[in-house]
Amino acid sequence: MPSRSRLAAGTAPSPSDLDAEAGFARDVAEGLASHPRTLPCRYFYDARGSELFEEITRLPEYYPTVVETGILRACLPEFARSLGGGPAVLVEFGSGSSLKTELLLAAVPGIVRYIPIDVSASALAAAAARLAHRFPALDVRPVVGDFTQATAISLHAEGLARIGFFPGSTIGNFAPDEAIGLLSAFRTTLSPKGRLLIGADLKKDLSVLVPAYDDAAGVTAAFNLNLLARINRELGGNFDLTRFRHLIRYDEKKGRVEMHLESTCDQVVTVRGQSYRFRTGDTIHTENSHKFSIDEFRALGRKAGWQPRHVWTDERALFSVHDFVD
Ligand SMILES: C[S@@+](CC[C@H](N)C(=O)[O-])C[C@H]1O[C@@H](n2cnc3c(N)ncnc32)[C@H](O)[C@@H]1O
Predict the structure, then answer these.
(1) pTM
(2) If you compute the radius of gyration of the chain from its CA atoms, what whole number of angstroms results?
(3) Which residues contact 166 (CB under 8 A, 6 or more apart)?
(4) Is the torsion defined by CA of 26, 30, 32, 37 positive or negative?
(5) Is the predicted pLDDT of residue 303 greater than 80, yes or no?
(6) pLDDT digits over 92-135, tens only?
(7) Are 276 and 33 in contact (CB under 8 A)?
(8) Which of 78, 111, 187, 258 has the smallest C-beta neighbourhood within 10 Å, fewest atoms?
(9) How far, in Å, CA of 69 to CA of 58, rounded?
(10) Per-residue model confidence as pLDDT tens digits over 263-276
C-alpha cells in the first residue's frame, strides 16, 4: 500500500488528506488571483485525471508514449549491461501506471526494491498491485507525494546501486531553471553515485506536435477540463465546464507547448467563497511541455551536476532517452 494513507469512504480525513486539500485550496486561490492565471499541472492527476492520461497515451496522435516505449525496448539491454548486475534500488518520479517500468524491471534483474513516487494515489495503488503480482520477489514501496520534495525520502539503500527513472518527458513541465533544480534534487536523492534514465521530448514540426496536445477525439480537452471539475468536486467551486474550452499555444521562443483553459464568455466563478471574474478570451494556463534538442537536454543535465553518458533516440528523432551518471 502507498506510504501516505488516503481518505477511505466513510472515514474521517487523515492529517495528510487535510494538508493536501489545504495545499490544493491555497494553490488554486493563488493561481486564479494571479495575472496571467495559472494552475500547477500536478493537480491534473486525481483518479479521473490519471485515467484520462492513460487514454491519451493510447491516442494515435500522442506519439511520446509509443515512441519512448520503442526506444526503451531497444536500449534497455545495453543500459542493463552497463549497470554491472549488482543489487539495485529503482526510484521512479511520477510513475503513473508504471507500464514502462515493467520493461526496465524485466531487463535489469538486479533491481530488488522499487520506490514509485506519484501524486496520484489511485494510479500508484493499481501499478503497485500489478507489479507485485508480476515480480513477486520485488520489494515495492509506493510513496504518494510530490516528487519535487523527493530529497526528503530516505531510500534505505545501503549496499544497493541507485537508479532513478523519469520517463514520459514529465521534466518538460518545468521551466529550465526549475528543471535544473529538480534534476539536482534527484541527484541528491540518488547519491552517492546515482544513475538517472530520463525521457525528454524533442523539438519537431508543429504538424506532429500540436495534434498530440489537441486530439480529434477530445480526450486531451477532457483531461484539461477535468482540472476545473476537480476544483468543483474537492473545493466546492462552481466552474461551468461548458463555458471554458481547451486551448493550445506553441511558444517558439521558449520551445514549449502551452495548455490553457479559455473562457468563452464574460462570467464570474466562485471557489470557496472567493469570486473570480473572467472576460471572454481570458485563459488559465494549466501546463507547459518544453521541447529540447539533444544537446540542450544534455547541457541541462550538466547544469544539474549530472554527466550525460549515453542518449538513444528513434528513427524520426521524435523523442530521446538519456542515461545520466553522477
Ligand atoms: C506525464 S505523466 C507520465 C506518467 C509515466 N511516467 C509515463 O511515462 O507514462 C506524469 C505523471 O507524474 C505524476 N506527477 C506529476 N507531477 C507530479 C509531482 N509534482 N509529484 C509526483 N507526481 C507527479 C502524475 O500523476 C503522472 O502520473
Answers:
(1) 0.94
(2) 20
(3) 92, 93, 94, 186, 196, 197, 198, 199
(4) negative
(5) yes
(6) 999 999 999 999 999 999 999 999 999 999 999 999 999 999 99
(7) yes
(8) 78
(9) 12
(10) 999 999 999 999 99
- Among 118, 230, 257, name the best residue to mutate to test ligand 1's pocket (greatest count of ligand atoms within 8 A of Cβ): 118
Ligand 1 contact via 170 beta carbon (within 6 Å):
yes
Per DSSP, the three-state class of 92 is strand
Nearest CA to ligand 1 atom 27: 96
Edge-to-edge, what's the strand order for the sheet holding 244-251?
37-38, 283-290, 256-263, 244-251
Instruction: Looking at the chain, list the stretches that DSSP marks H as alpha helix, in order from N- to C-terminal side.
Output: 15-33, 47-57, 63-83, 99-107, 121-134, 176-190, 206-213, 219-235, 294-303
Tell me the three state secondary structure of residue 324: strand
How far is the CA of 314 from the CAs of 30, 71, 72, 73, in angstroms? Answer: 41, 6, 10, 11
Q: 304: how many CB neighbours lie within 10 A of its CB?
A: 17
Q: Would you kindly state where each structural domain of the chain is located, as residue ranges? A: 37-60+218-290, 63-204+296-325
HEC states along 236-293? Answer: CCCCCHHHEEEEEEEECCCCEEEEEEEECCCEEEEECCEEEEECCCCEEEEEEEECEC
C-alpha grid cell for residue 152? 526528503
Q: Is 167 in the pocket of ligand 1 (CB under 6 A)?
A: yes
Whole-number Å distance between alpha carbons of 230 and 32: 14
Class of domain 63-204+296-325: alpha beta
